[in-house]
Amino acid sequence: MNIIKVITVIVVLTMVTPLSAENTNTADSNSNSENTATPNADPSEATAAPAAPATAQEIASGVCAGCHNADGNSIIPANPILAGQHAEYLSKQLLDFKATENEPAKRNSPVMSAMVAALSQEDMKKLSEYYAKQKMVPSQVEADAKLLETGKILYHGGNIENGVPACASCHGPKGTGIPPRYPALAGQHAEYTHTQLSLFNTGDRANDGDVMQKVITRMSGSEKRAVSAYIASMRP
Ligand code: HEC
Ligand code: HEC
Q: Is domain 2-133 given the CATH code 3.90.950.10 in the classification?
């Protein structure tokens, strides 16, 4: 079993690495052809990485960028924006994604478990500090005003009837979180947030010490959608 797991991880990793390498190549050749056409094009993206042991920035742009962008500002709504998130929270998540010989991963994500398999704790710490320092580019929202209003009421006041606590009490009135434990939410993609709320609800994400799971069981489907849309519209 373990050997199969290890092989799967290696296969996934080798599948993903050439993919991101390809992306970089395409970007480079694009900017190269742009360079010949327009002499003013900015060549900074083509700057070669220094030859040193893998820095956080090198891992981020070599391995993680395909899904989260090099600076952690994922533009794919299913993938979380990491830029500006608290380093302690990011570190905890990376550790939680990692399975050990004796224990399965605390946070279940086949994609991310494959990603962290080859990372040391030191790598995880460096990467988390790197993303925490990047400036967040918040999600661009086009939700209707009514949905946002419903979400806003829930976020700041909860739903007293059903015993849903205000998100603001743990994640802050501006959605900036309270380190080390409570993550920032403001500006996160609604699709990602909604997926997490559903995963907490079904128990497929259970690395929260039962805190979020308790909050979420009392929320309706439409409340989850509304609060996710509102969170995406918040600006840290
Ligand atoms: C193939 C796409 C892909 C790649 C490559 C990838 N990720 Fe992810 N990442 C995801 C997805 C999808 C999620 C959401 C997982 C879930 O909860 O189901 C995620 C979640 C995360 C989270 C949790 C964020 C939060 O707010 O809880 C962190 C941290 C993270 N990734 C860091 C990384 C790092 C560091 C790398 C590179 C070593 C990386 N990712 C590479 C797709 C990817
Ligand atoms: C009692 C405190 C508490 C309350 C109230 C609370 N949360 Fe959380 N929330 C947490 C904690 C703790 C975590 C981090 C869990 C972990 O370590 O993985 C979290 C994580 C999350 C995440 C995952 C973030 C990510 O990047 O993956 C989302 C989304 C979230 N909360 C949304 C909400 C919403 C929406 C509400 C209001 C309906 C809410 N929370 C209310 C404590 C709380």
A: no
* Global pTM value: 0.84
Residues with CB under 6 A from ligand 1: 16, 59, 63-64, 66-68, 78-80, 82, 85, 90, 93-94, 109, 111-112, 115, 127
Could you give the CA distance from residue 154 to residue 230 in angstroms, rounded to a whole number? 9
CA–CA dist 104, 82 (Å, integer): 24
Domain span(s) for CATH 1.10.760.10 in the chain? 2-133, 145-233
Model pLDDT for residues 169-222, shown as the tens digit of each residue: 999 999 999 999 999 999 999 999 999 999 999 999 999 999 999 999 999 999
Which two three-digit tokens encode residue 17?
Answer: 């690495």
Best residue among 148, 212, 218 to mutate for probing ligand 2's pocket (most ligand atoms within 8 Å of CB) is 212
Q: How far is the CA of 161 from the centre of ligand 1 (A)?
A: 35
